[in-house]
Amino acid sequence: PWVQPIVVAERRYRLLTTVVTVRFTNVEQEAWVHPVLAQFETQESSHAVSVIDMIEVDGHHLIYSDKEPRARCEDLDTIAPWVKSLVWQSAIDHYDYFLQIHAGVVGAGDHCILLPGAPGNGKSTLTSALSHAGFDYYSDEVALLEYPGFVVRPLPLSIGVKSTGWDVLAPYMPELRDLPIHRRADGKVLRYVPPPVPDIHADRDTGCRVGQIIFPCYAPDADTRLEPLGRVAALKRLMDE
User: Fold this and answer.
1) Which of 6, 13, 15, 46 could form a disulfide with 91 if both were Cys (CB 3.0 to 4.6 A apart)?
2) Is the separation of the CB atoms in 110 and 136 below 8 Å?
3) What is the pLDDT of residues 103-137, one digit of tens each?
């Protein structure tokens, strides 16, 4: 059960319309978690709707969301994925949207491009490469479609690059090799790359309509090609995500 923690540091992060307070009982916890969420830090306090606590007990790190236990982490390199997920979940629980799609999103002028795909199909790698090639970075993993208008708002979460993509993305992101290595609960090993600097200060309170939908499908040693899809086939693939 939750007990009142002895807090050594506290940060507030704003995603969408929600402010989440994250409290640390160990300075090392803050060092692992804050860089992953730093672009969302805010000084707002009156609109905080959720509190996440990390309490160190006997060398373990217990994570609570609004005093409810969520995770028990044995090592520091496993806590940031949990906290990022809980902050994100709190934000979407308090936001009015039409549909959540598992997709990368980049902006291209007056519209954005959805890149939906299951894990392993290369959407995060493609999203990362496109954002470093000049496209606006919206998100590498989620698109909240708003109704009406099929509009998506920028949500520049840190780009989670799994170990399978490090060699591919290293030429685009020289800093990648120097970033801390995190471990998710599903066993995946990844590094979190901060979003491109110009996009951190972008106006996140306005959305952009979807102009194209591209479904990445990575296959080793295959030739790169684009295949047009009919509307019914595209809708089915979109709903799969």
Assistant:
1) 15
2) no
3) 999 998 889 999 998 887 888 888 888 988 889 99
